[in-house]
Design a protein that fits this description.
199 residues, alpha+beta, 4-stranded antiparallel β-sheet, two-stranded antiparallel ribbon, 7 helices, globular
């Protein structure tokens, strides 16, 4: 993001509006999004004792697949320029993701606004794999409870909001349904949203 965009984020999250993204802005942003989340929170935290009780086992390549539900999207998104009109999502968070997209459709009412926000570029939900760089920890995508959006401008090692482009308004739509925005909560990987409670 440029300095004007960072100033906009700071104003929206209620912190010092100075264009410098440091510890105070990070804390304010996380609190801003947490305060939007439902109470009680609808999803367990990643790694918590209740996580597997809630979501069950992760998927395995050519093996077990978590229970899923297909949701119809209110607007078409694109995976490598292929139109996508529905998504398969873990059944425990499918309705929630449906509502996220309905909120996005309201905030960004046409494809021009959606393209500017980057939400027409879809990079996947289900991928039964371990986390990058880990030999033991599984990605949330293996549970089908995470989605990646606009990875080209919000990559795994790209800091948010200094370099990544994910709008705070998109993060708010996910937060209102209890989803964590990686960009806000670990400062990078802003393409990634997961249906887990904050730690």
């Amino acid at each position: 993001m440029n300095r004007i965009e960072i100033l906009h984020v700071q104003e929206r999250i209620g912190t010092v509006v100075d264009g410098f993204w440091g510890p105070k802005s990070i804390a304010a942003c996380q609190n801003h999004l947490k305060n939007m989340m439902p109470v009680p929170h609808p999803f367990p935290a990643e790694g918590s004792s209740g996580f597997l009780d809630f979501f069950g086992p992760h998927g395995e390549k050519d093996g077990y697949t978590p229970p899923s539900k297909r949701i119809k999207l209110p607007f078409t998104i694109y995976y490598d320029q292929t139109p996508v009109t529905s998504l398969l999502v873990h059944e425990k968070c499918a309705d929630s993701l449906q509502r996220v997209f309905q909120k996005l459709a309201t905030i960004y009412p046409d494809d021009g606004a959606r393209e500017a926000a980057g939400i027409l570029v879809y990079n996947g939900v289900y991928n039964p794999r371990k986390k990058r760089g880990s030999a033991t920890s599984w990605s949330m995508h293996a549970w089908m409870n995470a989605i990646d959006i606009n990875a080209g401008k919000n990559g795994n090692k790209t800091s948010w909001p200094v370099n990544a482009k994910m709008p705070i308004e998109v993060m708010e739509c996910f937060a209102q349904e209890g989803w964590l925005a990686a960009g806000a909560f670990w400062g990078r990987d802003a393409m990634h949203f997961q249906a887990t409670g904050p730690v």
